[in-house]
Amino acid sequence: MQYQKILDTIKEELSTKQNKGKVASYIPELAKVDPNKFGMHLYCINSGHYGFGNEEEQFSIQSISKVFSLTLAMSLLNDELFERVDVEPSGDPFNSLVQLEYENGIPRNPLINSGALVIADILVSTLDNPKKQLLDFIHEITGNTGININLKVFNSEKKYSNRNASLLHLMKSFGNVKNDIETVLDLYIFQCSIAMSCKELATAFMVYANSGRTLFDKKQIISERKIKRINAIMQTCGFYDEAGEFSFRVGLPGKSGVGGGIAAIHPGQYAVTTWSPPLNPKGNSELGMYALERLTTLTGFSIF
Amino acid sequence: MQYQKILDTIKEELSTKQNKGKVASYIPELAKVDPNKFGMHLYCINSGHYGFGNEEEQFSIQSISKVFSLTLAMSLLNDELFERVDVEPSGDPFNSLVQLEYENGIPRNPLINSGALVIADILVSTLDNPKKQLLDFIHEITGNTGININLKVFNSEKKYSNRNASLLHLMKSFGNVKNDIETVLDLYIFQCSIAMSCKELATAFMVYANSGRTLFDKKQIISERKIKRINAIMQTCGFYDEAGEFSFRVGLPGKSGVGGGIAAIHPGQYAVTTWSPPLNPKGNSELGMYALERLTTLTGFSIF
Amino acid sequence: MQYQKILDTIKEELSTKQNKGKVASYIPELAKVDPNKFGMHLYCINSGHYGFGNEEEQFSIQSISKVFSLTLAMSLLNDELFERVDVEPSGDPFNSLVQLEYENGIPRNPLINSGALVIADILVSTLDNPKKQLLDFIHEITGNTGININLKVFNSEKKYSNRNASLLHLMKSFGNVKNDIETVLDLYIFQCSIAMSCKELATAFMVYANSGRTLFDKKQIISERKIKRINAIMQTCGFYDEAGEFSFRVGLPGKSGVGGGIAAIHPGQYAVTTWSPPLNPKGNSELGMYALERLTTLTGFSIF
Amino acid sequence: MQYQKILDTIKEELSTKQNKGKVASYIPELAKVDPNKFGMHLYCINSGHYGFGNEEEQFSIQSISKVFSLTLAMSLLNDELFERVDVEPSGDPFNSLVQLEYENGIPRNPLINSGALVIADILVSTLDNPKKQLLDFIHEITGNTGININLKVFNSEKKYSNRNASLLHLMKSFGNVKNDIETVLDLYIFQCSIAMSCKELATAFMVYANSGRTLFDKKQIISERKIKRINAIMQTCGFYDEAGEFSFRVGLPGKSGVGGGIAAIHPGQYAVTTWSPPLNPKGNSELGMYALERLTTLTGFSIF
Question: Which domain of life is it from (chains A, B, C, D) (predicted)?
Fold first, then answer.
C-alpha cells in the first residue's frame, strides 16, 4: 500500500474511534488544550512528506525534548556521560524516587525525569548559554529558526516543579548534580516548554532515522555510532513504564511527551510523529499509540 | 567486510582478551563447565553458515529456552496469554519477588523466571505431554531430532529450585498458577536443562530472523505478526537487568542464559549465537557480549 | 474505678457501637465464624479474674500462637536464635516478601509470618515431637490439658498455604530454613489452628505479665530477662503494620490474630484478652482494639 | 543497688570498653567533635540527680529536638495533626524517600526526618515566631533560659541540607507541606543545632517521665494523655531502624541524635541521658546504647 493511502486509512479509522484517554492536568496550562486535536506526519527518506489533521499546529513537546538534550550532550561528551546516567529501562513510574535512592543518585536512563535533569546539569556545566544553544540545535536539525518555547507553559510549569526539585536535591546529595538547582531546573522546564508541530518534529527526528544526518541539507549532526545508541535508548526507555508495550505493539524506537506528542523512527526509512492530547493511564497518547500501531501493521514492517 | 573475515577478526581479538567473568555456580553441575570454552556461529539468510571455536559442542541453554516455550505457547494461544504475563522490562534482578508482589502475581514479562514459570503452567494446561512436545518443537525448528536434555544438569537443578518454587507458590496465591506446583517446576527445569550447540541454536533462531519460517525447509512455524512480538520482547527484556546495555552496545534482539550462551538475531539478515561460560556481574556471558558488539560494529549495522 | 465497673462500662459502650470490621475470609473455615461474638477477659495479678461476653468460648488463636512458639524456642536457645531472625518492626504488610528479599532471607522479627516460620523451623530442629511439645507448653502455662487444635481450621488452612510455602522456599534458598518445607509448614499451620478462649489466653499471657512465672502455681517458665525481651518484641512488632497505632492508642505489649483475638499485658499488673472476629483494614480486631484502648484510658495507666 | 553505685559500675565498665563507633561526618562541624567525650545523667523523680563524665558539656542535640517540636505541635493541635503524619515505625533507613513515595507524602512517623519536617511546617503555620517559641518551650521545661543553638553547626548544616530539601519538595508535591520550603528547612536546621548538656536534656525529659509536668516547678506542660502518646511514639520510632533492638536491649522509650546523644525515660521513675559521639552503623551512639542497657539490667527493671 502507498503511504498516502495508509495515512488515509488511519485517518478514517480514527474518525470512528472513541478516545478514552485524559489530557494531562498536573499543569493548568496543559489542561487547557483541546482534547480533539489530532495530527500525524510521516517523513520518508525516499518519498518525502505525508500527513493529515493538525499536523502543522504547535504543541508542547515536553519529554520529547529529552531526546534533543541527550543528543546535544552526547555530541559534546563521550562515554564519560554514561558514568552519570545508566541506560537501563526503569520499570517504574516515570518520576519515581525509589530506584534513584537504591542506585545512589545514578538515574536508570536519560529519558526519565531524573536522567534528563542530570543531562540538563551537564549542559549547564558544558555550555555558555545552554537555553540558546539548545534552541540553536533544534533550529539546525529542523532548518527552522522560528521554533521557540511557549511562555505560558514555561511559567505554568515553574509553579509545579516540586517533584523535579526533589529529584535534583536528592541527586545533589549523592554528588550527581554539580550546578545550582534553580539553574538546572530552569533549563529543564525551558526545554519541556518548547513548542513544535508534528511536521517540525518529524523533520527533527529524520536525523535519527538517517544515521545522524539531516535530510534537507545532508549535514552530519552527530556520528552514526552515537545515533544508534540514542535509538537503542529510545527503544528500551522511551515510553515510561510502557516501553515494552510500545515495542510490542509498534516496534519502533521513539519518545512520547505528556503534551500528547509521540515521535518515532524506522532507521533508514522514515520519521513519524503524532499529536493527540488525551493520555492513557501510563502517560502516553492514547490515539497516537493506536495510529503508530496501525502504521507499522499496514506498512508490514517494524524494526522486528 | 565479508562475514568470514569479520568472524576471523573477532576470533583473533578474543585470543588476547582476558575473561573477567565468573562461571555460574548456583548449580554444581554448571560450575564444572570449562571456562575456556568459546564458540560462535553466524547463520545468514543469504549466505549460510559461518563459525569458529566450540560451536558444535552442546551446552545447557538454560534461560534461552524461555524463548522456545514462549513461542510454543503463543502458537497455541492468542492475546489472552498476555493477561497472565506482561511485556514490560523488569528493571530488577532476574528472579526478584518484589515486583511480582506489587503487581499481584502478574510477572513483568515472559523472559524473567516468574514469567517463564507462568508460560510453563500454560503449557501444562494446554498440552498432553508438554516435555515431549517442547522437544518436538525444537526438533522441528532445527531439523535435528537428536536434541535432548542433559540429565545431570536436570537432576542437579532439581535440588536447587527453591527460588522458583517460591515464585510459583506466590503466583499461585494470586491465582496465576493453575496446575500442581511440582509438575510446573518439573517442566521448567526440564526446558532449562536442554543441551544445544551454537550451531543448533543459530538454526533454531533463524525462525525469528526469517519472519517465522525455517530456512532449511521453508516451513511457517508461527505467524509473522507473532514473531515480531517475540522479537520486540527479546529486545526489551532478553538480558535481565542489562537489556538496555545490550540494546545500546549490540543493538539486536536476543536472549542469554546462565550456561553462558547468547542467541540474537538481525531480522531479515541472520541469527547469531555465542557460548562462553564466564558471566559478568549481571548474569550475561562476558565474552559473548563482547563478540556480539564487535559483530554489529564490524558489519556496520544493528537494527538501529 | 474498680476493674469490674470498668469492664461493665466497656461492655455497655460496645453494645451501642457499630462494627465496621470484616471477618477474615482467606480461609473458608474462618469466614464461617459469627461476627457478633465478643469476649473480654482481664486477669489481674492482685485481684484475679474479670470478664464478660463470650469469654469462655474457644476461637482460632492464629498469630497469637507466634508468641508461644517464640517463647518455647527462646527457652531452648540463647542469643544465637537472633542470628536467624531480627527484632525490628517490619513496616510492611504482614506477609510481604519484599523485605525478606532485601535482607537475604532474615525475617524482620519473629511475629511476622516469615519470622514465625523460621521459629517453627527451629522447633522442628530442636524438638523430638514439636507439635506435642508446643501443646504441652500451652497446657503447662494454662494449667489446662484440654487445649487442642481445631481440626477443621487446620485442614482448611492446609489448602491455602501458598504464601507461607513461598516464604519458606525463599528463606530456604538463602539457607535460613534447615528442614523439609512440608514439615515446617505443617507445624506452623498446627500452631495457628490452636483453639483457646479469652479466659485461657489471659491465663497463658499472665506468664508475660508476671516476670515469666505462672500465677496459679508460681512456676518459672522462662527467665525474667527473656520475658522482658519477648514483651519488648510484642510492643514493637505485635500488630502487623499497626504496631505504632496500637502502642499509641493502647500502650501495652500484645499480639493479635486474624481469628479476631488480641492478647495484651501490663507487666506487673495484668493480662487482658479480647475476641471479636471482624478485623480492621490492617488485620487487627476492630472492637478488640477499641475495648483495649478504653481499658487503658479508664484505668488511667498504660506502660507509658 | 543504689543509683550512684550503678552509675559508678557503668563508668568503670566504660573505661575498659573499646568504642567501635564512628563520629557522624556528613556535616563537617559534627565531625570535629572529640570522640572520647562521654557523659551520663540520671534524673530520678524520687531521688534527684546523678551523673558522671562530660554530663555538663553541651553538644548538638540533633534529632532529639524532634521530640520537643512534636510536643510543642501537639500542645497546639489535636488529632488533626495525625492526618499529616502517621505513627508507625519506618522499617527503613531514617531519611529514605521510598516509603514517602508509596504513602503519598504522609511520613511514617514524626521522629524520622520527613515527619519532623512536616511538624516544622505545622509550627511555621501555627506560630508567629517559631524559632523563638521553640527555644522558649525548651527554656520552660528546663528552667534554663541560656539554652541556644550552636551557630557553627547551624551554618554548617545549612550547606548539607539537600536530602531534607528533597523530602520537602516531594511532600509539597503531595500537598503535605504548606509553607515556603526555605522557611521550613531553616526552622528544622535551627532545631537540630540546639546545644544542650546531658543534665539539661535529662531535666527536659523529666516532663515525659513525670506525666507531662516539670519536676522543679510542678508545671503541667502538656496533658498526661498526650505525653503517653509521645512516649509510645518514642518507644516504637525513636531509634531509626534500631527501634526494635533498643526496645529489646534497653526497654525504654527514648530518642537518639547523630550528635551522639540519647535521651530516654522510665515513666514514673526517671529520665536518663547519655552522650558519646561515635555512632554504630545504624546511627545510634555505640556507648550510649551500652550504658543504657547496663542501667536497665542493673536496676532490674525496664518498662517490660
Answer: Bacteria
Give the Cα separation of A263 and A41 in Å (integer). 9
Distance between CA atoms of A121 and A73, rounded to whole angstroms? 10
User: Identity (one letter) of the amino acid at A202?
Assistant: A
Dist CA B194 CA B135 (whole Å): 9
Q: Given this model, what pLDDT does residue D94 score?
A: 45
User: CA of D169 to nearest chain A CA: how many angstroms apart?
Assistant: 5
> What pLDDT shows up at residue B102?
77
CB C264, CB C271: distance < 8 Å: yes
What interhelical angle do B286-299 and B3-15 show, nearest 10?
140
Set of chain B residues whose Cβ sits within 8 Å of the Cβ of A88: 89, 91, 241-245
CA D57 to CA D40: how far, in whole Å? 11
Report the complex ipTM: 0.91
The domain covering D3-299 belongs, at the CATH homologous superfamily level, to DD-peptidase/beta-lactamase superfamily (3.40.710.10)
Tracing cell 519470622 back to the chain, one arrives at C115
**pLDDT tens-digit map of A243-261:** 888 998 999 999 999 999 9
Residue type for position D180: D
**Burial per residue of D189-214, b for 16 or more beta-carbon CB atoms within 10 angstroms, e otherwise:** bbbbbbbbbbbbbbbbbbbbbbbbbb
B-chain CB neighbours of C173 within 8 Å are 162-163, 166
Q: Considering the entire predicted model, what is its pTM?
A: 0.92
Query: Residue A73 above 60 pLDDT?
Result: yes
pLDDT digits (tens, 9 = 90+) for A120-177: 999 999 999 999 999 999 999 999 999 999 999 999 999 999 999 999 999 999 999 9
Q: If you count residue pairs, one on B and one on C, with CB atoms under 8 Å apart, how many are there?
A: 45
Closest CA to C297 of A27, D225, B268, B227: D225
Cα A228 → chain centroid:
16
Which is more confident, B192 or D248? B192
C-alpha Rg value of chain C to the nearest Å: 18
Q: Side chain identity at D125, as an amino acid letter?
A: S
Q: How far apart are CA D151 and CA D133, in angstroms?
A: 18
Beta bridge partners, B149, equal B194
Q: Is A269 on the interface with D (CB under 8 A)?
A: no
Closest CA relative to residue C295, chosen from C41, C79, C103, C120 = C41
Order of strands, edge to edge, in the sheet holding B194-196? B59-60, B194-196, B148-149
Q: Residue ranges per domain, chain A? A: 3-299
DSSP secondary-structure letter at A279? B
Distance from CA of D179 to the nearest CA of A (A): 13
B157 is in an annotated binding site: yes
Indicate yes or no: CB of B166 within 8 angstroms of CB of C166: yes
What are the cell numbers at C90?
517490619
Direct distance between the N- and C-terminal alpha carbons of chain A, in angstroms, rounded to an integer: 19
User: Is the CB of residue B126 less than 8 Å away from at least one CB of chain C?
Assistant: no
Tell me how close the Cα of C157 comes to any Cα of chain D, in angstroms. 29
Of B98, B162, B172, the CB nearest to C101: B98
Q: Is C240 annotated as a binding residue?
A: yes
Residues in chain A with CB shorter than 8 Å from the CB of B236 are 89, 235-236, 243-244, 247
Q: Residue A267 corresponds to which amino acid?
A: P
Is A244 in CB contact (< 8 Å) with chain B?
Answer: yes
Closest residue of D to A98, CA-based? Answer: D98
What's the CA gap between D100 and D163, in Å, rounded?
13
- Using the Cα atoms of residue B195, residue B197, residue B201 and residue B203 in order, give the sign of their dihedral: negative
The C-alpha of A252 sits at a distance from chain B's nearest C-alpha, in angstroms, of 9
Beta carbons of A232 and B244 less than 8 Å apart: yes
Nearest to D302 among C90, C228, C241 (CB): C228
User: Taking the CB of residue C157, how many other CB atoms lie within 10 A of it?
Assistant: 24
The C-alpha cell at A5 is: 493511502
Nearest-angstrom CA–CA distance, D94 and B254:
41
